[in-house]
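Incident review: delayed structure delivery

Summary: a single-chain prediction request sat in the queue longer than the usual turnaround. Root cause was a stuck worker, restarted by the on-call engineer. No data loss occurred. The affected request and its eventual output are reproduced below so the record is complete for anyone auditing the incident later.

Affected input:
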Amino acid sequence: MTNPFLTGLYYVLKAIVVVTLRIFYPQAAAVNRHLFKHKGPVIVIFNHPNTLLDALLTAVAIKGQTFFLANYSLFKNPVAAWLLNRLYCIPIQRYQDTAGRPLQNEDSFARADAHLAAGGRLLIAPEGASLPGRRVRPFKTGAARIALSAESKAGFQLGLVFLPVGLTYERPHRFGGSVVIHAGDPVPVRPFAVAHAVDPMQAVRDLTDALEQQMKQLVVHTEDEAEDKLLHQVEILLQNERPLPLRESYWRSRQVSDGFRQVQSDQPEAWELFSRDVRAYFGRLNALGLQDRDIVAKSFRDFWLLLPALWLALPVFVFGWAANALPFHLPGLISDRLKVVPEYKATWKYVTGLVFFPLWYTVLFQMLKIPLPAVACWAVVLAAPIAGWAAWLYFKKALYVWQRFRAWRRFRRHSELKQEWRELRKAIMEQIPVGKWAFNTPS
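Output delivered after worker restart:
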């Protein structure tokens, strides 16, 4: 029987996560949004480069309540285990959780079977571990085993499907980044019934391989860190040459990534030359303190026009920074001190921010009560989040102006340099494996 209190708590927490994730990743786009409304038993799978935030972003996109398969290590604390078991989490052991002892997931698999048999939703990360980078790691077989177990117990009449969801981040570990959430076509489990009757383990492997291949079609997939960095640099070139909204930029990156595969296979020498030229171009830019957009710019008048606006808005920045600097910067300082691994940084900042900001605003209110009336205290505290957001936008714009000023000063002294840089940039653009940066966006 559904617990009304836990159901209400789930949707309250979901609303908080929706709002706060929108703040943390202000640029977000969904592809195939209609697929998130799938009815009936479904296992939602997602790629896993960004720890907890991957699960949260996927869960809030799915309509209705979702159960989570979570790492067993999170349940070792009795209090956490009690809470997580009541907040729709099912523990799954991994070999790193048992110190080499045999896995004991029978009870968890039974809970998952019962949940799916009742028409529920289950959220699983088949990669098994969270590792940074824009690439899909080999899938573990657990998700396929759960699906085939649930269907076989129902005589393959359950109608269970997988809903693959790909997550592609830009600067995933930093506040203010972007994310594209791409839902793929549902993968039914029933077609694997015959294979499961003949050889259950082979059916598990076949289903796992099919899911992994589909996931690679839902993200920007690179082969390694070097290719990921190269693609990021090409994305900067393309976006400065022809700016596109987030969704269209994602499709363009997919096309460029596919072009990389083709060039590496067919023209390895051309690929090496192209890679070397891009690395050299950005290396020289960084050494001179320049940005690619400075090379593209026809003039530098825009930063002169922005200076008066920055001076006028300076009081807003000062107030916003003063009212939010401590809870904004403290999580990052602590993570650096604790040497938090990269893939956990975004989760650390997000979770600690949920604690630090309300706590700080409470302290701020109490501090202001000493010299100010209550109405003024409330006005300051309520204005603080808005001013903080404005301060962040101000900082981005001020940084832009400073970078533009440096470029203007350098090119003013050496006017011939800009033309040389443009010729070098043009030669690189002609090598990018995507014809005139045109593409057809899938419907």
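Verification: The radius of gyration is 25 Å.
Action items: add queue-age alerting; document worker restart procedure.
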